[in-house]
């Protein structure tokens, strides 16, 4: 029994990373649903989707559309879409230069619950921000997310279905912050939204590289003490690299 | 009333005294690793829901271990009365720390009552997971399903193994 347990703890865990570029929100939802179902049936390993969305506003399960400050028709005029989802969290905006990471992982197989998972996502974004010498912190109670002072730089909204996660985190690298003026972001009034561009003088890499770095920080946070192998799907084919 | 009777029958089973005015339940034993309580007289699912079977009614909620791992619950979605629930299928959801987590039914049956207090006080799930935080009452359609669930000792061990894998 003990040997079996040790074996389980030492066996390498695989994470497959999919770099998807810009993806329409509904298409990414469909993909996530499929991957959640595949992960639940153990047809695929833990998977991380790395992508951006075209300008899109989304609401969570509580459907807090009182936090949308303009009519939906006007949103369309801005070239943005609005979607209602099953994730936790309030209203938010995603757009170009807004790094999105959707981990589709089995929390049960690593024995953690929602709270630990969300804290890990927060820590990953904080570590990522620190690479650019930006001192970020986790939110106070009731303000889940990542903040620089009183300005929000990273948001989290997760869905857990039979122990498999979907949706995930969004980190503001250099989005057009004007889009946030039309909502009460995450339902928290009187707090600003910020971006890495605003908070640092350090030159930022190309979005793709930034997102991969963010993804690596997540892997590092999750699996620091274990051997891991990570495969990346990119247009040029499969690449294998070790987590930092 | 039912809870008080349950409390005293639990107390009797544990050979402890109880007074009629007390309605709090006594934990059978604790999981010292994560300080969660597990109660005698309940059945448990691997997805961390509990069932209390009392004649033709089964009360369902989530365990102390589950609420601790979720964090503070801010929203609860429950089914309507008279709707059907199926074993290991989702019947509702809770939101905590920006995560919505589905709740799976340990048994199949018809929903006969829903805890409406959870709409205004979702935190009852955290403060009182086995009492005031109950979620639905069901008329079981297949009582044999209860036999497939874990007892308190099995569930405690299951939690320990799950936490150890972290």
TrEMBL record, chain A:
**Residue stretches making up the BPL/LPL catalytic domain:** 42-223
- Enzyme type, top EC level: transferase
Task: Indicate the transmembrane segments per the record.
Answer: none
| Enzyme nomenclature, EC number | 2.3.1.181
Q: In which pathway does it act?
A: Protein modification; protein lipoylation via endogenous pathway; protein N(6)-(lipoyl)lysine from octanoyl-[acyl-carrier-protein]: step 1/2
Fetch the CDD domains from UniProt. Answer: LipB
Q: What is the similarity comment for this entry?
A: Belongs to the LipB family.
**What protein am I looking at?**
lipoyl(octanoyl) transferase
Automatic annotation (TrEMBL), chain B:
Matching entries from SUPFAM superfamilies are given as: Single hybrid motif
Q: Which InterPro entries match?
A: Biotin_lipoyl, GCV_H, GCV_H/Fam206, GCV_H_sub, Single_hybrid_motif
Q: Where in the cell is it found?
A: Mitochondrion
Signal peptide region? none
Question: What keywords are assigned to this protein?
Answer: Lipoyl, Mitochondrion, Transit peptide
Kindly state what the record says about how the cofactor is bound: Binds 1 lipoyl cofactor covalently.
PROSITE patterns (alphabetical): BIOTINYL_LIPOYL
Q: Tell me how this protein assembles.
A: The glycine cleavage system is composed of four proteins: P, T, L and H.
What is known about what this protein does? Answer: The H protein shuttles the methylamine group of glycine from the P protein to the T protein.
Sorted alphabetically, which HAMAP family does this protein's record hold? GcvH
Family label: Belongs to the GcvH family.
This chain belongs to the protein called Glycine cleavage system H protein
Organism source for this protein? Brassica napus (Rape)
């Amino acid at each position: 029994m003990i040997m079996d347990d040790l074996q389980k703890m030492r066996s390498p865990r695989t994470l497959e990373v999919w770099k998807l570029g810009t993806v329409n929100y509904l298409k990414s939802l469909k993909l996530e649903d499929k991957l959640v179902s595949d992960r639940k049936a153990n047809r695929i390993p833990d998977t991380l989707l790395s992508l951006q969305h075209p300008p899109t506003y989304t609401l969570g399960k509580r459907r807090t559309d009182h936090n949308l400050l303009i009519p939906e028709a006007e949103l369309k005029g801005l070239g943005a879409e609005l979607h209602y989802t099953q994730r936790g969290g309030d209203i938010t905006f995603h757009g170009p230069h807004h790094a999105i990471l959707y981990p589709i992982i089995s929390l049960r197989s690593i024995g953690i619950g929602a709270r630990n998972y969300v804290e890990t996502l927060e820590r990953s974004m904080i570590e990522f921000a620190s690479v650019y010498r930006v001192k970020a912190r986790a939110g106070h109670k009731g303000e889940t997310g990542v903040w620089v002072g009183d300005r929000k730089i990273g948001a989290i909204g997760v869905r857990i279905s039979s122990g498999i996660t979907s949706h995930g985190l969004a980190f503001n690298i250099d989005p057009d912050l004007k889009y946030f003026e039309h909502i009460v972001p995450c339902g928290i009034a009187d707090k600003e939204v910020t971006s890495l561009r605003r908070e640092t003088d350090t030159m930022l890499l190309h979005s793709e590289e930034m997102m991969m770095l963010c993804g690596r920080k997540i892997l590092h946070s999750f699996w620091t003490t274990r051997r891991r192998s990570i495969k990346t799907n990119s247009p040029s084919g499969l690449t294998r690299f070790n987590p930092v | 009333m039912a809870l008080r009777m349950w409390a005293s029958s639990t107390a009797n089973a544990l050979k402890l005294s109880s007074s009629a005015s007390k309605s709090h339940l006594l934990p059978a034993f604790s999981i010292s690793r994560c300080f969660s309580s597990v109660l005698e007289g309940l059945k448990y699912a691997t997805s961390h829901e509990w069932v209390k079977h009392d004649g033709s009614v089964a009360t369902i909620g989530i365990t102390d271990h589950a609420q601790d791992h979720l964090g503070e619950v801010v929203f609860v979605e429950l089914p309507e009365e008279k709707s059907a629930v199926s074993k290991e299928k989702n019947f509702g959801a809770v939101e905590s720390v920006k995560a919505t987590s589905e709740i799976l039914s340990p048994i199949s049956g018809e929903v006969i009552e829903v805890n409406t207090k959870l709409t205004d006080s979702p935190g009852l799930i955290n403060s009182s997971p086995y009492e005031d935080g109950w979620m639905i009452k069901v008329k079981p359609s297949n009582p044999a399903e209860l036999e497939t669930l874990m007892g308190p000792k099995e569930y405690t061990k299951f939690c320990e193994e799950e936490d150890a894998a972290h």
